[in-house]
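tool_call: predict_structure(chain=1)
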Amino acid sequence: MTSRPAQHLRGRGTGAGRPPCKGGGPTLRRRGQVRGFTLVEVLVALAVMAVIAGMAWQGMDAMVRSREAAQASSQATLRTGIALAQWERDLWAVLPTGAVPALRFDGAHVRLTREAADGGVQVVVWSRREGAWWRWASPAVTRTGELQDLWLRSQQLLGQEAGTLKLLDGLDGLQLYFHRDNAWTNAQSSGDRTPQAADPPASGAPPGALPAALDERLPNAVRLVLSLPAGPLTRDLLMPPQP
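tool_result:
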């Protein structure tokens, strides 16, 4: 048997005979190499995103504020409507009794007597106090003495009595006018009372006691002027015909 030369065997095992690599070492092939972002590019992108987020936040904040303002305005309008509706119901139910004044205004309080829903007569007071519009309604009574006591009591209200209700906030002022003889007059003027005086109080009556009977001429219409934050509000109401 003839043996192969050792040099030939070594050449096959070590890769002899291949051309040497340039540079003295192996080379690697890079496929799909991608270039990354620089720090400046990242900072610019972050700045743009921050500006966009700030603009979006301002838009959202403006929308929320607008919605809150619209809700507050709607609630204020609703409360005003409820208060005026109750005011109109009271005026339409005014009932002259001849025992106490049926409708009086002293600059801050409107006092009136009205027919109660369940029968009898109530004393109702509308007043401006602490920047709000308040309403107090007495229990219904059927006796003249009780009605006179309630009328005197209505001049000493403290705001904590039963039947007191705050109907409207933000009231800066209140004015009332009566319409008689084709003209509007201040409700506080003495011309709103008829000269026919009732019988004077009985002897020994306490100070401020009411006469035994009153002959009162109610106005044809009532004008209410409320000073509100949104501006003055005027409401005219035609009174029901008197018998």
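agent: The radius of gyration is 45 Å. Proceeding to next step.
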